[in-house]
Amino acid sequence: MKLLLVEDQEELASGVRNYFSKVGDVCEVASSFSKATDKLYAFSYDVLLLDLMLPDGDGLSLLKVVKENWPEMGVVIISAKNALTDKLHGLEMGADDYLPKPFHLAELNARANAVYRRRKQEGKRTLGFKEIELNLDQQEATVNGTTLDLTRKEYELLHYFIVNQNRLLTKQAIAEHLWGDYMDTMDSFDFVYQHIKNLRKKISSADGNDYLKTVYGAGYKMKDES
Amino acid sequence: MNLIVRITILFVLVSLVVFLIGGVISYNILMGEVNSEQERFLMERLDRMQLRLERRPPNDTIKWTKMMVVPLDDNVEDRDSFSDTLVMHSQLERLEPHLRLDAIRNINGKSYQISLYDIIVEADDIREGLTESLVTMYLILLAAVLIIGFLASYYVLRPFNDTLTAIKSFSLTKPDQKIRFPESNVVEFRRLNDFLTDMTNKVKSDYQSLKEFSENASHEIQTPIAIIQSKLEVLMDGDNLNEEQIQQLSFIQNTIKRLSHLGNALSLITKIDNREFVDEATIDLSATLNQMLEEFKELIELKEIKRNDEIVHGVTVQADRVLIELLLTNLINNAIRHNWEGGELQIFLKSDHLKIINTGPQLQISPDELFQRFKKSNQSAKSTGLGLAIVKKICDFYDYDLSYDSQNELHTIHIQF
Question: Is residue B338 a contact partner of residue B358, using CB atoms and an 8 Å limit?
Fold first, then answer.
């Protein structure tokens, strides 16, 4: 997956770039409207990560340019302007998703991946980790060919882990991914634990290995340690 | 009270006083005129009488109607004196007040006392006539004032009323709205309109810059938070941290999240205050509520809360979808968050009200304070303390009646639409 991040905050941009490059995605950074258009004309990208407030122009106008010239490119708006009008406007103008700042890098990765896979037409759309496979069209998970009976949240959780494999997912990031912004209490962390427990049980009952490692005090990591 | 009505009443009162004083003055002037005229008339008659007596001086007392001549024995100096007297009126057959002139005249060397009298115009009659005519005039004036007042309020004040209508439609939240005041050739109205135009433009631009400021402020706060967040994540993902360090970082991360939430919640409250949610539509409350409960289903089950709903189908409200969803989310979230493990949650939706009852620990603050910003029953709770403040704001915005009641660890939130 090749990404272009349009973000004028150098510190944030480097964090995002490092995160993506660790899993072999290519993420380039443009810090302004004009640099972004230069890069867009010179190279091709799968997904554009777009900040709405740029030093030399409005992100929404860049979105318009992108949708006119490269309609097949996926766009995720990342904005500190958590204004609902901006969100609606962006989605109306053809953005695929909207992620308000501050976000978890894991969440951004999951969103960018979802957009990328949704737009990728050819072939079976699957995602896998070892013997676990997700069918993105059917929203089903199989372990060694056996279909798991997962609830919607459990499926989303597994999907989140596979997209962010080998990364630490904090309980907070997981809670937000599953329940959105309103689950900001410590309570939700117990719920995360419950879901992980159920998911482990279901995978192991289908003779799958337990790849969900607990990182004490912080969260979980999907990792193959063998 | 209408301005014109006020001015009219004032005018009517002042003119009443003027009419009363004017009446007294008119009466005095009129009486003076009438008296001097009557005296002149009697004097003329006296002159004619005198000529007559000069031609044929009488020897004896003469009595004619309204006059009497008495020859005097002595010679007395000439003199005149007027007095009032009552004389039997021949036609009316009653005593009528008369003006009487007693004069002494020396004619051909002999003195005569000449008495002349004539019926006078009575003061009562003058007063009555005057009163009658003044009352009539006053009534005519009253009618004229009322008609003029009506016309004035309609025609003269029309530009003013148009200006008022224009101001009424003025809204801060519509940035493109250009307020237009009607043209007027009255200087005062023109000045008023010019002033209002300047003022509304100023208010608009001030409001706009304030809004931009708060939006930018929110942006400027969220961006550093985003940077901290991403750095923390990179740090935590490293392999060389011990458990305690990771725990500390996790704690920082949660705190950072709260800070971000706080900013968002405050900016949301400001937006509701600024009436920026005007996207009204008919919302199926029953469907929305069911959908919400579906989202919360797992949380409710995980906390082993016994749920009991009575949701009537097809309950609708006219409102902004975003606000209604926020309202329901906050209420349900609260009812779960502050519930016991294995507690109870009852939700009733009827055509005109919503009632949410949940079990939970007793409130440590007074119920009135519950809806204030940053008021929490338990200060250590990891919430922003803005959830119910937002609920209250939304209810106020749509004039819903919001009340809270608690009895023996049973909490009831009631919203009357």
Answer: yes
Range of B36's domain?
A: 3-144
> Is residue B169 within 8 Å of residue B181, measured between CB atoms?
no
B253 exposed, middle or buried (CB, 10 Å; 0-12, 13-18, 19+)?
Answer: buried
Question: Nearest residue on chain B to A172, judged by CA atoms?
Answer: B254
Which of B141, B181, B153 lies closest to B1 in space, CA to CA? Answer: B153
ipTM field: 0.82
CATH architecture for segment(s) A2-119: 3-Layer(aba) Sandwich (3.40)
Residue B256 forms contact with A (CB below 8 Å): yes
The answer to whether the CB of A179 falls within 8 A of the CB of B299 is: yes
Of the two residues B162 and B372, the one the predictor is more confident about is B162
pLDDT in tens, A90-137: 888 889 999 988 888 999 999 999 899 888 766 567 888 888 998 888
Query: What is the architecture, at CATH level 2, of domain A126-222?
Result: Orthogonal Bundle (1.10)
User: What's the length of chain B?
Assistant: 417
Does residue B188 share a domain with residue B139?
no
Considering CB atoms only, which of A9, A80, A186 is closest to B382?
A186
Looking at CA atoms only, how far is residue A105 from chain B in angstroms?
6
Which residues lie closer than 8 Å to B150 by C-beta, 6 or more apart? B4
Cβ–Cβ contact B217 with A under 8 A: no
